[in-house]
Amino acid sequence: MSGGTTGRPDAVRDPWRVLVNVAQIPDTGLHREIVADEAVRKAMAEAAELREVISAHATFDLQPKRDGSCHVTGRVLARVGQTCVVTLDPIENEIIEPIDVMFAPPEQIPEMADLVDDAEAGDEETPDPPEPITGGFIDIGRLATDALFLAIDPYPRKADAVFEQEVEAPDPENHPFAALKALKEKPNGKKPKGS
Asked: Is the residue at 5 inside a domain?
């Protein structure tokens, strides 16, 4: 395994790798379903700092375009184990995340990004810039992993968990002016005249 720019092994950075050769996608498109095995789920949990990834499954439809780009749609279904931020109890969360991404050869991306910038100036909904097709391949495993990671609730809590802060009755002797009051009183406990 080679390290990337982050110094982490590829398996940690990209724990779920499933490559699709764009040149081998038929004109009618390609449907792929992928399921993460136990080793991949464990690596994903470690990368996302989760208790566990119980299951991860993704479906994709890849549709090539005449200009060499490819439209990828699908969804990721996963179940992840997390820790409730209120009770610290273990909980499980279901993830269903849609995917809709355009991939293009790297040489086309600047031109397509300019079209996205032009669309931002208008009133219509702005499309995302395309992702690069790297070495003729699209990594649908990484695409599924990214979608799953983005869908994780960063503050998971049990359905019935309520954060209740303990409220204590204020001590009348414990306030900012208590010290001034003590200085103002005479040693015999009586207040001076005029106060």
From this structure: no
Please calculate the CA angle 127-131-133 and round it to the nearest 5 degrees. Answer: 140
Q: Check pLDDT > 90 for residue 154.
A: yes
Query: Which of 170-174, 181-185, 190-194 is predicted with the least confidence, judged by mean pLDDT?
Result: 190-194
109-118 CB contacts, 8 Å cutoff, 24+ apart: 112/69
166 to each of 28, 69, 169, 170, 176, how far by Cα in Å? Answer: 63, 58, 10, 12, 21
Q: How many CB atoms lie within 10 A of CB 25?
A: 16
Contact 52, 80 (CB under 8 A): yes
Cβ partners under 8 Å of residue 155, min gap 6: 85
Domains in the chain, number: 1
- Which positions ≥6 away from 136 have C-beta within 8 Å? 21, 22, 23
Sign of CA dihedral 74, 102, 44, 46: negative
175 assigned to some structural domain: no
Res 6: pLDDT: 37
User: Could you tell me if residue 126 is inside a domain?
Assistant: yes
Local structure of 116: helix, strand or coil: helix
The answer as to whether 161 is a domain residue is no
Q: For residue 133, what are the domain limits?
A: 10-151
